[in-house]
Amino acid sequence: MSDIHAEKVLVLDFGSQTTQLIARRVREARVYCEIHPCTMPLNEIKAYNPMGVILSGGPASVYAPGAPSVDPGIFDLGVPVLGICYGMQIITHLLGGVVARGEKREYGPAKIAIKAAHGPLRDLDPTEPHQVWMSHGDRIEKMPHGFDILALSGNSPVAAMGDVRRRLYGVQFHPEVAHTPEGAAMLAAFVLGECGCRPIWTMHNFVEATVADLQERLAGQKVICALSGGVDSSVVALLLHRAVAGNLTSIFVDNGLLRQGEVAEVAGLFRDAFKLNLIVVDAGKLFLDRLAGVTDPEQKRRIIGHTFIEVFETEAAKIGQVDFLAQGTLYPDVIESVSFKGPSAVIKSHHNVGGLPERMKLKLVEPLRELFKDEGREVGRELGLPETIVSRQPFPGPGLAIRIMGEVTKPRLATLRAADAIVLEEMRAAGLYEKVWQSFAVLVPVKTVGVMGDERTYEDVIALRIVDSVDAMTADWSRVPYELLSRMSSRIINEVKGVNRVVLDISSKPPATIEWE
To answer: Residue 359: its pLDDT value, please?
Structure first.
C-alpha cells in the first residue's frame, strides 16, 4: 500500500494465548507487524521480507512428539530473531541446545538479574533486578553454540540468552503481558534497536496511505456501507468518504432496537457534520412485528439478522449499480482464521452485514482489516470523530432485543431504553464509562412485589451488568462504588415507570456471558 509497510516484523504463532499481545506491543512501538502460523513456509517468509522475526510462546514442550516447529532457515535470513518462552526453547532445540523439564515449574512474577544488556535487554539497567512474568515448566539446560546468558532468575539459569553476532535472542519470560512492567520497552528495543525499524506505523500515516490506496482501487466505482454508529463502521464510513466522497452511500437501518437518542445522534453527526450521503431507514415496526411472540434468544438473533439483510438489500437496490460493500473487519477477525491452533469454523460473524457479499454479488472493501480495535479508535480520532463515538462501548448488533429477556414489545423496549440511559448517564458522570468494557441494563422477565408510598406494587426488575475485559473473551464484574450503584437504582426506580427493583449481576465470563442472551 505504501511505505508504512516497508519496514515490518513477522510474528510466528506457536499457539500462545498472548500472541496477539506481542503484535499489539510491536505496533505500540510504531512498527508494523503481522501474525502468521509457525508453519509458514520459508519461501513465504522470505517474500514477506521482514526486518525481524518474533517466535511466540506456546503450550507444548519442544521435545514432545509432534510439537510445533519452524523452518530452521529463518536463522539464516540475516535478520534478528527473538524467541519468547516456547519460542526461545525452539531456538535452543533446533540449534543444538538442550531443553528439559525443570526441577520445578515457574509461573507468575519473578525477578531477573541482567548479565549482559543486549538484544531486547539492551536498554535495561544491569545493576538492578527487573520484574517479569514467567509461565513455563521446561527450561534451557544447555544453550546452543554461540549463545551467552543475558539474564537469569531463581529458577531459570537461562532466563534470557543471545548470540549477539547472529542477532538471535531468547527470553524465557513474557515481555508482552502487563505483568512484565518493562516488557513493552524490551520489545521496542528489539524492533527499533536490533531490527533497525523506523517508528513509521502511525495512524496518521495509516489514514494518508489508506485514503490514497482507496482512491486508486475504487476510482469511479460505487460503494455502499452499513453504518451502525459503532466505532468500526463509523471509521470505515469516514475513511471511504474522504477517499471517494460522492461515490459512497451509507445506509443506517433503524431497527427500533437502538438506545435512547441514538438515531438522531448518528444521523445528525454523519449527515450534518460530516456531510455523508446517508440514508436512514425507519424499519422499527417491521422488526417488532417479526419479533412478536418470540422468546428464544437465537431465534431473535436470526430474525433480526435476516430482516436487516432484507432491508439493507431493498435500500441498496434503490441506489442502482453498486460495485463494493464496505465492512469493518478488524485484524483479530483475520488472525482467528489463520491461527496455528487451526482455522475457526466461522470468522466472527458479529458484523451486521455478515452474509451480504454472497447474496448481493459485491466485492468487499475492508480498510481496517490490518488494525486492532485500539488502532481503529485512533484512526477515528485522526478523522475527527467525537469521543462519544470513538470511546463507545461495544453494542450488540441485535441491540436491546437481547437485553430483554422474553418477548420484545414496544412498552418493554421503552422501559429498558429509559433504564439503560440512566446507567450510561451515571457511568459518564462518575468518569467510569471509558474505564470499563461495558455497562448496561437488562430487563428481567419476572415481576416482584414492592411498596411505593403506601401501595403494594408488582412490577419489573432491572439487572445492572458492568464488566471489565480486554477483548470480551473473558470478563469480570467491575467493582464500581456502592454510591454509584445506589444512585442508579434510585433513579431507575423513581424515573422508569413500571420498575420497582434493581439487581446487580456479579457473574464472570466464563461461566456466564457478558450479554444475557
So the answer is: 66
| Number of domains comprising the chain | 3
Nearest Cα neighbor of 89 from 18, 145, 139, 52 is 139
CATH number at residue 247: 3.40.50.620
Cβ burial, residue 220 (10 Å; 0-12/13-18/19+) = exposed
The C-alpha cell 458484523 sits at: 351
Q: Does 157 lie in the same domain as 130?
A: yes
Is 396 a domain residue?
no
pLDDT of 215 strictly over 70: yes
Task: Pull the grid cell for residue 421.
Answer: 440511559
Sheet holding 98-114: strands in order across? Answer: 32-37, 8-13, 52-55, 81-84, 168-171, 160-163, 148-153, 98-114, 130-142
Q: Are 391 and 434 in contact (CB under 8 A)?
A: yes
How many helices (H) and strands (E) the chain has is answered by 15, 18
Which of helix, strand or coil describes residue 478?
A: coil
Residue of 401, 302, 393 lying closest to 355 (CA atoms):
302
Domain residue limits at 152: 7-194
Evaluate whether 234 touches 276 at the Cβ level (below 8 Å): no
Name the packing angle between helices 410-429 and 482-495 (round to 10°). 150
User: What would the DSSP string read from start to end of 129-183?
Assistant: -EEEEEEEEEEEEEPPTT-EEEEEESS-TTSEEEETTTTEEEESS-TTSTTSTTH
The H-or-E segment that residue 458 falls in is: strand 455-468
Q: What is the mean pLDDT of the chain?
A: 90
> Which residues are marked as active site?
85, 174, 176
Give, in order, the Cα–Cα distances in Å from 232 to each of 33, 119, 372. 21, 37, 11
Using DSSP's 3-state secondary structure scheme, residue 423 falls into helix
pLDDT of residue 101: 80
Quick one: cell of 492? 431507575
Q: How confident is residue 344, by pLDDT bands cut at 50, 70 and 90? A: very low
Residue 2 placed within a domain: no
For the chain, give percent helix, strand, coil, nearest 5.
35, 25, 40
Whether pLDDT at 223 is above 70: yes
Q: What is the DSSP letter of 259?
A: P
Q: What pLDDT, on a 0 to 100 scale, did the predictor assign at position 352? A: 40
Contact (Cβ atoms closer than 8 angstroms) between residue 416 and residue 441 = yes
**Same domain membership, residue 302 and residue 239:** yes
What residues are paired with 112 via a beta bridge?
A: 130, 153
